[in-house]
Design brief:
Number of helices of chain B: 3
CATH superfamily of chain A: Amidase signature (AS) domain
Helix content of chain B: 25-40%
Number of strands of chain B: 2
Radius of gyration of chain A: 21 Å
CATH topology of one domain in chain B: Histone, subunit A
Distance between the termini of chain A: 12 Å
Structural class of chain A: alpha/beta
Strand order of the largest sheet of chain A: 4-6-5-10-11-9-7-8
Order of helices and strands of chain B: HHHEE
Largest interface: A-B, 70 and 51 residues
Strand content of chain B: under 5%
Largest sheet of chain A: 8 strands, mixed
Shape of chain A: globular
Structural class of chain B: mainly alpha
Number of strands of chain A: 11
Oligomer: heterodimer
CATH topology of chain A: Amidase signature (AS) enzymes
Chain lengths: 485, 95
Amino acid sequence: MHNKSMTELAAGLRVGDYSSVELTQYFLDRIQQLDSGLNSFVTVCANEALSAAQAADVQLQTGQAGLLTGIPIAHKDIFCTQGIRTTCGSKMLENFVSPYDATVVARLKAAGVVNLGKTNMDEFAMGSSNETSYYGPVCNPWDTETVPGGSSGGSAACVAARLAPAATGTDTGGSIRQPAALCGITGLKPTYGRVSRYGMIAFASSLDQAGPMTTSAADAAIMLQVMAGFDERDSTSAEQPVPDYSAGLEDDLTGLKIGLPKEYFGEGLDNAVAQSIDEAIAEYRKLGAEVVEISLPNTHLAVPTYYVVAPAECSSNLSRFDGVRYGHRCEDPTDLEDLYKRSRAEGFGDEVKRRILIGTYALSAGYYDAYYLKAQKIRHLISDDFTQAFKQVDVIMGPTTPDSGFRMGERADDPVSMYLSDIYTIAVNLAGLPGISIPAALANGKPAGLQIIGNYFAEAKLLNVAHRLQMATDYHQAAPANIEQ
Amino acid sequence: MSLDHADVKKIAHLARVDLADEQMESIAKDLSNILNLVEQMSTVDTAGVEPMAHPLHMVQRLRSDEVTETDARELFQSIAPQTDAGLYLVPKVIE
């Protein structure tokens, strides 16, 4: 049952092969039996899930059900959930229970989706390995000695281990696509503004975007359908109509122009990953696509630029954690400054502090022009690279990550080497474009992700291109060996 | 670009984060490494390039000036570390 797609599970619910309560209990049991070895969940909410499943069963019986009614999923612990603890992977929010639901959570709830629990993540989404979580690292189900990627590492690991049919994630510099690649699942980062940020704890507001993490592009399409759309509560929400993401999934790819940026295939790319990507590209040629080499000449500037823009915005966003209104508060503060300084010192972990400090420095008097303003100008150059490329091609393809991951602890003491693991994903956030990572053929027995980048609001095209590969190959059906009960 | 103890101390004060003296050296090193990574930006000629504040170059949307939320003070204060009579409590600021 756990290898079924959301569409198949929905069909099973409709014909009465099982109820939503049975389906939900099935995944709760899997979580209980298998997650102790993975740590992909911070909070499992069995009671709430089962009562939501009961309500879904009533809707299914009375013919009021939608496509996703009664399907259980998991939410990244960055999305506020009313009545259920939201930690954002931080000690700062260890006891935080949100008074409201994030728009993404509310929309999925309204569609009848059952929430199994909240998934582990890098603290405040700052990390590429899920090692910065206050609640402990997450193990990659393919090899529990290696990292699952981050920051949506818990979501990726739980979907890869089939502890949930799907999960939500967020992506500021690769945090959906990179863990999706390392765990062998499908992860879509939509266009900036496509999915509401309301109730999604802010990291870098001009980059953050939520998206689905699933075992197939077809499932991502039905999940994005519910998540996407204008929200007046998010001031940067896009006022763009939401197309039917499933309608064009099987569209023919004859004549599709695929651009391969030469900068994504150069030095630093692991040979085995490169070979998996080449095989996937060859499949696209068979499907009638035309492949051309392109150049994104400012690619090498994406990581430096990001590590000014993201920390600057993080230092501003995280100033709200002051020990006064919610979150961790230190014991016996002597004065207001002591309250702020100690609450924040105790509540935040090392990586979050590093980014707050870098961001504070970049925004401080005398340095603003040299850092933040300069970074915003280079951001424009990076974005222009893509604008030029999309004059020639329909989609851009390349590896999602330079290698198939790393062992736990290997890069933990060297922040800069960790930052470089997002080298192929970060530019997409800076430009605000949509990108999807789907499994390519295994590279030396480990997952490798093919990244497909589209033009603004071209999510339907990305899903179509991804789905066609998944029709032609079984790359996406590869699952880790140790997940059978 | 390299930061010393005094720089880190000043930044930590601006960011309102308490740092222990024994952490200063490793933090100064980490921050200096990050600034060295960022330093690549200075080689780029950005004369005449507009800064990009928003990926879609959208303007801030305004809403009409109407009441849309109801008072939820009790709900919001139920998660606060310390409150009294509807007020958030902090250490005494004015003698």
